[in-house]
Amino acid sequence: MSISVGIIGYGNLGRGVELAVNAAPDLDLKAVFTRRDPSSLKILSSEVPVVHVDEAPKWSEELDVVILCGGSATDLPVQTPEYTRYFNVVDSFDTHARIPDHFANVDKAGRENGHVAVISVGWDPGLFSLARIYSNSVLLDGKDYTFWGRGVSQGHSDAIRRIPGVKNAKQYTVPVQAALDAVRSGSNPELSTRDKHERECFVVLEEGADAAKIENTIKTMPNYFADYNTTVHFISEEEFNQNHQGMAHGGFVIRTGKTGANKENNEMIEFQLKLDSNPEFTGSVLAAYARAVARLNTEGKSGCMTAFDIAPAYLSPLSGEELRAHLL
Amino acid sequence: MSISVGIIGYGNLGRGVELAVNAAPDLDLKAVFTRRDPSSLKILSSEVPVVHVDEAPKWSEELDVVILCGGSATDLPVQTPEYTRYFNVVDSFDTHARIPDHFANVDKAGRENGHVAVISVGWDPGLFSLARIYSNSVLLDGKDYTFWGRGVSQGHSDAIRRIPGVKNAKQYTVPVQAALDAVRSGSNPELSTRDKHERECFVVLEEGADAAKIENTIKTMPNYFADYNTTVHFISEEEFNQNHQGMAHGGFVIRTGKTGANKENNEMIEFQLKLDSNPEFTGSVLAAYARAVARLNTEGKSGCMTAFDIAPAYLSPLSGEELRAHLL
Fold first, then answer.
1. What is the DSSP string of A275-320?
2. Phi, psi angle pair for B291, to nearest 5°
3. Between chains, do B328 and A125 touch, taking CB under 8 Å as contact?
4. Closest partner residue to A134 among B24, B127, B328, by Cβ?
5. How far apart are CA B79 and CA A107, in angstroms?
6. Which of A35, B14, B164, B254 has its CA at a distance of 20 to 30 angstroms from the CA of residue B128?
7. Cβ contact (<8 Å) for B127 and A328?
8. CA B212, CA B215: separation in Å to the nearest integer?
9. What chain B residue is nearest to A317 in terms of C-alpha separation?
């Protein structure tokens, strides 16, 4: 059985989802919806129609699941409940503090309209959340550590670009090796913000800008940089364009815990991602959950779920027998 | 709600399960069943009754779930279908080739008697299986690598002990660092048996035994050692007793895959365990799945499942709201 998929929103993530859907044997991309003029949007799959997003509800009978590829700040809080009225959906909502509200809104739309929605899917939240729930459930007595990077933080890059005199900037979040080593030793260290991550900035200046002043502005910026060891590299636009266009990312979730009658034994569970393309990998996770959502709805389920609520077998194109034979 | 738990079988694993159940706020150990004379068995929880296993069926109303701690070779193929008639059960069956038969037998007993059974839970199969299914579902185009160790292989230690002139022996399976590095580089290496693991043996000789001959016997032993780089250390009984009683183990599951229009991007998912106590950690996994099994049965489910069929939220003592707030 082929699952008919739509994509709403076609930035880096939408393109990553498109690649993942096209690579899946059982997923069939039927339409890409955009807020832009559809005729202006060139997508990878030339045979797939590009449709204005206002037309999306008319596709409700055609699509088994729609993958929402908007941003968490303003798009998804509106789009996910809205499109759950018409479709089974998957989103990558990642504004942690607003998840309870988002869950409630989407759950209501899903239950009222008989659709399944899975929210907050990707790698964090998503696969990292799975690493946390499994390791916490097994090692009840323990401590969690999450490290991000090495990878680009869009928010921190934007913050630098807003400084007068800055022409362009990329900020890499870098986990501190000594902190990772301390965690893995089982010593359960208490780690400050500064201990865990460093921030490395590559900045292209406008003509005549004051480098020393800008470096100081970056390093003392509250919330973004002041609490971290920050390195600033001033580079040419040419070097920037050549070496800092990548979308690599990754990180680590580690839980260390104790077992034994006297808590004498250390146990460590570590999950690591090392990604050349953050949006393509995230798109691959969304595609796997799209498969799950379509199947769950076929079974009569409705309402909002997260990765915590979905048995792993739903994510795989393989049958139960195949899974037990090859992956168990 | 407290979940009433029984344990059948009290070796290293049974003791590990006992510790895990006692450490869980919502699990309540009600009885330990043994084939031995119950009065001869001393368990850690002095207030918990030790009961002969023949009496177990009489406890079917008292226990929400029973954790089976026998061996995969001869115990579990009989015990799991048998006790699934009376209880919801969890086992750690790990004889890979026999899983389809075991699943079918247990599934039949579960469906006929309205009980849930989860088989093949632990770390491999178990958490490693989960790492495989999630990473395979996300990276459809990729390659899996599993490394075990550093840790004791009971089977290989036994094989050495059967050699005439050997008084005692422990064999450690050791992943080869160069192979791990090659996998992590994303080069998708083809690795032979010899490339992936080394075998390190610590042997105590009987008086007058021929060390050179025994070393040769070990290193050329078909299936067990001939295909590996094997190191043999002859040590005193005193050193053996002092340094080789531990039950540490662990390993790595790594999937590397490609994304991108031209498969130009490498993505790596790695899951790692580093365990001081293999049986205590395995017991902790079984206890988490016992919680899941009891809950699933309360919801009216029956039949056989594996870790693939169970949503992660069932493993945690936390509520859905708590999970979304703290672990998502």
1. ESBHHHHHHHHHHHHHHHHHHHHHTT--EEE-GGGS-GGGG-SS-H
2. -60, -45
3. yes
4. B127
5. 42
6. B14
7. no
8. 5
9. B137
- List the one residue out of A238, A242, A292 whose CA is nearest residue A64: A292
How many angstroms away from the CA of B175 is the closest CA of chain A? 17
ipTM at complex level: 0.96
Cα gap B184→B173, rounded to integer Å? 20
Residues of chain A with pLDDT under 70: 1
Chain A nearest-CA distance from B318, in A, is 9
- Cα A65 to Cα A48, A86, A129, B60, B185: the distances in Å are 16, 10, 23, 44, 35
pLDDT tens for each residue of A186-242: 889 999 999 999 999 999 999 999 999 999 999 999 999 999 999 999 999 999 999
Phi and psi at residue A172, in whole multiples of 5°? Answer: -105, 130
Distance CA B7, CA B24 (A): 15
3-state secondary structure (DSSP) of residue A151: strand
Q: What is the model's pLDDT at position B285?
A: 98
Q: Across residues B295-307, what is the average pLDDT?
A: 98
* B16, B304, A135, A302 alpha-carbon torsion, rounded to 10°: -150
Q: How far apart are CA B140 and CA B290, in angstroms?
A: 31
